[in-house]
Automatic annotation (TrEMBL):
Family according to the record: Belongs to the helicase family. RecQ subfamily.
CDD domains xrefs: DEXHc_RecQ, SF2_C_RecQ
Reactions that this protein is recorded to catalyse: Couples ATP hydrolysis with the unwinding of duplex DNA by translocating in the 3'-5' direction
Lineage: superkingdom: Bacteria
The protein's enzyme class: isomerase
GO MF, any single term: four-way junction helicase activity
SUPFAM superfamilies according to UniProt: HRDC-like, P-loop containing nucleoside triphosphate hydrolases, Winged helix' DNA-binding domain
Protein name as it appears in the record: DNA helicase RecQ
Xref: PANTHER family: ATP-DEPENDENT DNA HELICASE Q1, DNA HELICASE RECQ FAMILY MEMBER
GO cellular component terms listed in the entry, alphabetical order: bacterial nucleoid; cytoplasm; replisome
Length: 504
């Protein structure tokens, strides 16, 4: 380990996995991104006779891995569609004559008879399945190509098979073990806690000022701003450039050349900020990313964890800031509703509701994240999330909540947030006049607060299930049981007002 990789010592999970593989056992390992997975199989690959097959989903990832392994003197190669016929046959010859320790392959190879025949005629030490959750429909990144991997025990009988993933819930774990037909695998779940990351959720404000002021705190540091759409990536990158930030866009709609150049510029610290869709980051090992900002709602807790996980890989402090507004939800819903596969749609809805609870709740963010991955965080206060750091001011807003709830009741639960707010702040517009809402007792009683305050209060009441919101194009608000109790003064509302009063 020391001679090849130059590390002083193993991380605890690494040593266990290496020993299991050397003993010929199947392995199922859940390790967070940056947990040091490569060593777990590269070391046994060097020590065992024959070549280890590593199945990896991304061509770009393979090349980086091979370059990294070769830099450590490991005899590594990859086989995928980016190679021409001559290059491919050179790799195959090297495999057959036993000149390789590691061979990275794309999953679809296992569906090819001639590839399987070749494996039978070569000496293979073990099979490593990277991103193994791709084999599960329950995972967040199902790839049908991965199903071909269940033939491995037949094609390569008697060798250890190891599945690695960074994101497996219990259900996905069982699915992986079953589909890959792992035999009594050694199961390892490394901790997902990233102690050097600070998690913050802030209410997202419309306009560009909020993002700009956050980025100013990070002047001269590297970071990623994630946005959902290509258009918003372009717009945000252009806006930041105009304001003098060294920023570049990254998304799958850019041509290959520009994408690669922008990525390289970021990795080489020629720009500070990369504004990107989720297309950015897979397999990028930039160690000094100091912040990851989600300017839009991530699509699931897994993706949030993955994307924030790209910060602070050097172990130094880094911050993860999620800008959240309840008004982002309908935008995500729009895409989900367009999904044709009903099962896929349900899963997406489920992921969305979990990520919304994460952002809306007032519990320790770290605890919620670790809970999600089935891990119990041992302390009450993590001292590095917005909630534990007390960045929130707790204000008694029972009276205001009652105003809103009674506005809902007095308008027969037939209106949405915007109109209810107009009533409370006493706006005079056509809709108010048409419905005679300016004659309601609640008209204008909330004008001491601005619209933003009311929006936040509604978000919070929805998150704590005091108020429900109907489906559809014009969602209407209605009271739930806890809302009725608040109205009868049997329950109080302590509103978490996320303030910008201090920063971490
Ligand atoms: P993963 O593939 O799990 O995302 P890597 O294998 O790329 O992670 O490792 C992440 C980082 O941790 C790399 O920069 C690597 O050099 C470093 N690393 C891995 N194992 C050790 C170790 N035992 N001691 C010190 N650093 C390590
Ligand atoms: Zn915390």
């Amino acid at each position: 380990m020391h001679r090849i990789f130059g590390f002083r010592s193993f991380r605890p999970s690494q040593e266990e996995i290496v020993r299991a593989l050397l003993a010929g056992r199947d392995v199922f390992a859940v390790m967070p991104t940056g947990g040091g997975k490569s060593l777990c199989y590269q070391l046994p690959a060097v020590l065992m006779p024959g070549a280890a097959l590593v199945v990896s989903p991304l061509i770009s990832l393979m090349k980086d891995q091979v370059d990294g392994a070769r830099a450590n003197g490991i005899r590594a190669a990859f086989l995928n569609s980016s190679l021409d016929a001559t290059e491919q046959s050179a790799v195959l010859r090297a495999l057959q004559s036993g000149e390789l320790d590691l061979l990275y392959v794309a999953p679809e190879r296992f569906a090819l008879d001639h590839f399987r025949d070749l494996l039978l005629r070569s000496r293979i030490s073990m099979a490593i399945i990277d991103e193994a959750h791709c084999i599960s429909e329950w995972g967040h990144d199902f790839r049908p190509d991965y199903l071909a991997l269940s033939s491995i025990p037949e094609v390569l009988p008697g060798i250890p098979v190891a599945a690695f993933t960074a994101t497996a819930t219990e259900r996905v774990q069982h699915d992986i073990v079953r589909k890959l037909r792992l035999r009594d695998p050694f199961v390892l779940r490394a901790s997902f806690d990233r102690p050097n990351l600070t998690y913050e959720v802030r209410f997202k404000e419309p306009g560009e000022a909020q993002l700009v002021s956050i980025l100013k705190e990070f002047t001269g540091q590297s970071g990623i701003v994630y946005r959902t759409s290509r258009k918003s990536v372009n717009d945000t990158a252009a806006m930041l450039q105009k304001r003098g930030f060294r920023a570049l866009p990254y998304h799958a709609g850019l041509d290959d050349r520009e994408r690669r150049d922008n990525q390289e510029a970021f990795i080489r610290d020629e720009v500070d900020v990369i504004v990107a869709t989720v297309a950015f980051g897979m397999g990028i090992d930039k160690s000094n990313v100091r912040f990851v900002i989600h300017a839009d709602l991530p699509k699931s807790i897994e993706s949030y964890y993955q994307e924030t996980g790209r910060a602070g890989r050097d172990g130094e402090a880094a911050r993860c800031i999620l800008l959240f507004s309840q008004s982002d939800i309908p935008k995500v819903r729009f895409f989900i509703d367009a999904m044709t596969d009903e099962e896929e749609r349900q899963r997406a809805l489920d992921s969305l509701s979990k990520v919304v609870s994460f952002a809306s709740a007032t519990a320790c963010r770290r605890r919620m994240l670790l809970d999600y991955f089935g891990e119990t965080y041992p302390r009450d206060n993590c001292a590095s999330c917005d909630v534990c750091l007390g960045l929130h001011e707790l204000t008694d807003c029972t009276r205001e909540a009652q105003m809103l709830l009674s506005a809902i009741v007095r308008t027969d639960s037939r209106f949405g947030a915007a109109h209810l707010i107009d009533i409370l702040v006493g706006r005079k517009n056509q809709k108010i006049r048409d419905f005679g809402h300016d004659r309601l007792k609640v008209y204008g009683i909330g004008k001491e607060h601005d619209k933003k305050f009311w929006r936040r209060l509604i978000d919070d009441l929805i998150a704590r299930k005091a108020v429900g919101r109907s489906e559809g194009l014009y969602p209407m608000l209605y009271l739930l049981e806890s809302g009725a109790r608040i109205l009868r003064a049997e329950e109080r509302v302590e509103l978490v007002r996320i303030t910008e009063k201090k920063s971490v």
